[in-house]
Amino acid sequence: MDEVAETLQLITLILVGVGAFLWWRAMQARSHRLKLQTTPNYPLGRLADMEELPARAEVLAEAAAGPEGLLTSPYSQTECVWFRVEVVHHHYSDETGDRLELSPVFDLHSHQPFTLTDVTGSALCRPHWVEVEHADLVHDRFDEGVVPPTDALSPPHLEDAERGVVTASTKVAGPAALTPGCSFREWVIPPGERIFLRAFPHRDDDGGVVLMGGEDEPMTISTHTEQELIREDRGKEVLGFTALPVTLVLLVFALLLG
């Protein structure tokens, strides 16, 4: 009976840990939701006509090429207005030598400005400090035995037949949990994508509207609408704020049984 009680207590402690994580995620979601709900929405044309720009603004607009034209993502060679690349090294532990560890090598994104348009006008987006949600995953590749690259913008090793393809998704990261090597992932925002932004509007030297973020509060960009983001946050809140109390009650019962 004692062994059963100890096992039950251990399982309950694990569940409490999971519940605590879900509670923390729910708090983050609540903060994110309140920011969305308290920031006013503006058409781009109205922002352009305002004498004094608001401190924060939300817009729903279509992404288009910026002053320097479209970008080409390094791995899949996809034309886009923004991309992010992530390289993770899967290697054996230096201490034990028999356990695979995941070490981030690069997690970089493009900073080139791009254009936003809606039926009322246009603005410029400068994605220096930015959090992009739900971007399109266009490349997910795992290469066995590959050492970390020195340049994140250099494409991973490809077979000759694969070079130049628009989207590469061969040798996906499935074996990565068991095999040393490197995983390469890439996300993009293609031109024509309708995106939601929460940002700080400014004016450039020519008087045009520029949307950007700050180091302390990055700009939010999502391919989902504001309503979809709020629904996602509410779902996380319900799960997190319910899971932790339930697991704590289970822990009390488990301790009483012991």
UniProtKB/TrEMBL annotation:
Its annotated compartments are: Membrane
Membrane topology of this protein: Multi-pass membrane protein
The catalytic activity of this protein is classed by the Enzyme Commission as 2.3.2.27
* Highest taxon, organism lineage: Bacteria
Tell me one GO molecular function of this protein. ubiquitin protein ligase activity
What is one cellular component GO term in this UniProt entry?
membrane
Which GO biological process annotations does it have?
Answer: protein ubiquitination
Mind telling me which residue stretches traverse the membrane in this protein? 6-24, 238-257
> Ranges for the E3 Ubiquitin ligase MUL1-like domain?
108-244
This enzyme catalyses:
S-ubiquitinyl-[E2 ubiquitin-conjugating enzyme]-L-cysteine + [acceptor protein]-L-lysine = [E2 ubiquitin-conjugating enzyme]-L-cysteine + N(6)-ubiquitinyl-[acceptor protein]-L-lysine
Task: List the keywords (alphabetical).
Answer: Membrane, Metal-binding, Transferase, Transmembrane, Transmembrane helix, Ubl conjugation pathway, Zinc, Zinc-finger
- Its protein name is RING-type E3 ubiquitin transferase
Task: Identify the species of origin.
Answer: Streptomonospora alba
